[in-house]
Amino acid sequence: MRSRVMQVLVGSVCLMLWVGFVHAQSAKPLAGVKTVQVDPTVVPHADKVKEEQAPNQVADSLRNALKDANFEIGEAPIRAHIVLDEFTSGNTAKRFMVGFGAGRSTVDCQLVIQDAAGKELVNRRIRVRGNLIFSPYQGNNTQRRQAVTSFEQRLIEEIEKLK
After folding, report:
1. What phi and psi values does residue 36 have, to the nearest 5 degrees?
2. Residues 51, 92: contact at Cβ < 8 Å?
């Protein structure tokens, strides 16, 4: 009876350690990774991406964020890409006439990180909008730059959490 209790106890401890190890590994999928491959941006709904250069722009932002987080970019078993759900420069007329945040630029996407087999390790939603300060008087290019800069900063923050 006593040996059976010991077996169950030891088995339970081993199971808890294994679950903790697996959870720690999945919580930090970029731990120990030196190089990340950046794949092309995926655009599931082209009608919500108002800028032609948007897929390339967010892929460049992802590369910059990875470099800022001290990763090398190149062929690697860990791959990252952006699924771009919405990208707009905003609308000056809406910002001026309506106000209250209407017409601001938007970048709405998911950061996806996969292993060599294509298994999804991370899928984080990121949504940023242009600045509200003096926004009725800002042009669409200024609004877009603000959103892209905020987007890149959020990417860096999310990537740092995964290390």
Report:
1. -125, 135
2. no
